[in-house]
C-alpha cells in the first residue's frame, strides 16, 4: 500500500525543523506551476527558472517563518510574481522565448475513440486560443483554470479586485468560446447536427482539457 502524500502544511512544519526531504517534496509540488506562472511575466523559461529558484532559496532561508503564513498559495505566487518582475526589469533588452512551453497534463477518464481524437485536437486549439488572450487576462485564466486557485487568491496575487478577476475570466471564456466555435464550424461542416454534437462534446471537455 502506497504511503499517503504529506499535506503541504505538514511539509512546512517539517521544513521548519530543517527536514530537507520535506523541502524536496515541497519543491517538487510547486516548482513546475510556479515556473509556468513566472514565464507569463518574463516570457523566458530560463529567467522564470532563475526567478523561481531565487524564491525557493529564500523560502528555505526563512523556513521557520513559513508556518505563520496563512495563505501559502497566495504567498508563493506573489513572491514569484515580484521576483519575476524584478528579473524582467533587469533583462529588458534580452530576447524572450516563446510562451508556448506550458506542459498540459491531460487526464480524461472513460474516453471513447471519438472523444480522444477530439480532445487532442481541442487541446491544441484551446492552447492556441489562450495564447491570444491579452496578457493580464491570460495570467488570470491560467491561474484559475490550470493552477486551480480561487478568485480571491488570484485577486490578492495580482493586486486587483475580485470583480476585475470575474470580468477578465468572462472575457477569457467568451474569446476562447468564439475561437472554438469557429474551429468547430470548420471541422464539422458536413451537417448542422454533427457540428452541434461536436460542440457539445467540446464544451463538456473544456474543464478537463485545461486542468493541470
Automatic annotation (TrEMBL):
UniProt xrefs under InterPro entries: RNA_pol_sigma-70-like (IPR039425), RNA_pol_sigma-70_dom (IPR014284), RNA_pol_sigma70_bacteroid (IPR014327), RNA_pol_sigma70_r2 (IPR007627), RNA_pol_sigma70_r4_t2 (IPR013249), RNA_pol_sigma_r2 (IPR013325), RNA_pol_sigma_r3/r4-like (IPR013324), WH-like_DNA-bd_sf (IPR036388)
Alphabetical UniProt keywords: Sigma factor, Transcription, Transcription regulation
Domain (RNA polymerase sigma-70 region): residue spans on this chain: 27-91
Xref: Pfam families: Sigma70_r2, Sigma70_r4_2
Domain RNA polymerase sigma factor 70 region 4 type: 124-175
SUPFAM superfamilies hit by this protein: Sigma2 domain of RNA polymerase sigma factors, Sigma3 and sigma4 domains of RNA polymerase sigma factors
Taxonomy, superkingdom: Bacteria
Family: Belongs to the sigma-70 factor family. ECF subfamily.
Xref: NCBIfam families: Sig70_bacteroi1 (TIGR02985), sigma70-ECF (TIGR02937)
PANTHER family: RNA POLYMERASE ECF-TYPE SIGMA FACTO (PTHR43133), RNA POLYMERASE SIGMA-70 FACTOR ECF SUBFAMILY (PTHR43133:SF46)
Protein name per Swiss-Prot or TrEMBL: RNA polymerase sigma-70 factor
UniProt source species: Hymenobacter sublimis
Amino acid at each position: 500500500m502506497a504511503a499517503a502524500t504529506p499535506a503541504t502544511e505538514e511539509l512546512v512544519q517539517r521544513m521548519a525543523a530543517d527536514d530537507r526531504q520535506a523541502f524536496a517534496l515541497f519543491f517538487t509540488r510547486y516548482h513546475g506551476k510556479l515556473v509556468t506562472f513566472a514565464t507569463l511575466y518574463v516570457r523566458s523559461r530560463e529567467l522564470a527558472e532563475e526567478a523561481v529558484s531565487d524564491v525557493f532559496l529564500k523560502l528555505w532561508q526563512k523556513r521557520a517563518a513559513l508556518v505563520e503564513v496563512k495563505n501559502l498559495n497566495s504567498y508563493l505566487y506573489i513572491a514569484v510574481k515580484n521576483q519575476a518582475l524584478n528579473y524582467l526589469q533587469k533583462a529588458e533588452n534580452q530576447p524572450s522565448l516563446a510562451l508556448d512551453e506550458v506542459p498540459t497534463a491531460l487526464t480524461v477518464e472513460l474516453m471513447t475513440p471519438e472523444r480522444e481524437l477530439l480532445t487532442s485536437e481541442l487541446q491544441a486549439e484551446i492552447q492556441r486560443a489562450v495564447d491570444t488572450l491579452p496578457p493580464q487576462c491570460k495570467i488570470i485564466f491560467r491561474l484559475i483554470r490550470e493552477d486551480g486557485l480561487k478568485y480571491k487568491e488570484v485577486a490578492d496575487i495580482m493586486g486587483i479586485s475580485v470583480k476585475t478577476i470575474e470580468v477578465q475570466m468572462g472575457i477569457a471564456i467568451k474569446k476562447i468560446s468564439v475561437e472554438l466555435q469557429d474551429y468547430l464550424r470548420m471541422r464539422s461542416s458536413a451537417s448542422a447536427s454533427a457540428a452541434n454534437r461536436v460542440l457539445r462534446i467540446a464544451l463538456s471537455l473544456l474543464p478537463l482539457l485545461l486542468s493541470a
